[in-house]
Design a protein that fits this description.
The protein is of the alpha/beta class. The protein has 8 helices and 5 strands. Strand 4, helix 5 (119-129) and strand 5 (134-138) form a beta-alpha-beta unit.
Length: 205
């Protein structure tokens, strides 16, 4: 239920830039490359420094490793902008806007590429910190079982899924994102998972 709630329909229309959000899932870079080949955007920003959950896997920073993977899949280096400072989703967008300005770009539209279960939080965050941007969200369309199989770590995925759900209301209350309506059925599913012990990615409140 949580997995399906976080999915957003991809409007599948061209935008001026793509924004690949860093994290533990290299599939984000692979999806960016797919969209680039479909001519959804001519330029992509990979944004992200490191987090405790990614520093071992991506020691040179999430953005660097994501960009390298995209290049392997055919995205030209001169179509990639790196943003290597961001350590949270708000910073992903704030620092991406600065990086694009540094390259002489002030886009009015962007495709935000994220992990499948990060889509609602990404949308709520960009609406708060970059409200004038016409944003389209996109992620690989997979079942939860297929996603877990691809990542290879069920506990990690389920804990991240529960943590991203909690962040919807915690970050809205903190002013980092616009409020997102969470149905009672989703909140009940979240509560059941917390009670079952999926708490390693929860924020202290």
């Amino acid at each position: 239920m949580l997995w399906e709630f976080h999915q957003l329909p991809d409007e599948q229309r061209p935008t001026e830039v793509g924004i690949g959000l860093g994290g533990h899932d290299l599939g984000v870079a692979e999806h960016v490359a797919d969209l680039y080949r479909q001519e959804r955007f001519p330029v992509v920003v990979f944004t992200g420094a490191n987090a405790p959950t990614t520093v071992m896997r991506f020691p040179r920073g999430e953005a660097v490793h994501f960009a390298e993977r995209a290049e392997e899949l055919g995205v030209p280096r001169d179509a990639i902008v790196l943003e290597q400072r961001a350590t949270n989703t708000s910073e992903n967008f704030l620092f991406t806007r600065e990086a694009l300005l540094d390259h002489g770009m002030k886009p009015e539209s962007a495709t935000i590429v994220s992990r499948p279960y990060q889509q609602r939080r990404a949308w709520a965050t960009v609406r708060k910190v970059w409200p004038e941007l016409d944003a389209v969200c996109s992620a690989r369309w997979l079942t939860l079982d297929d996603y877990i199989a691809g990542i290879g770590d069920e506990q990690r995925v389920l804990n991240m899924l529960v943590g991203d759900t909690q962040r919807l209301w915690v970050y809205a209350e903190a002013g980092f994102a616009v409020p997102v309506e969470v149905p009672d059925s989703v909140r009940a599913a979240y509560d059941r998972l917390v009670a079952a012990g999926y708490t390693s990615r929860l924020l202290a409140t």
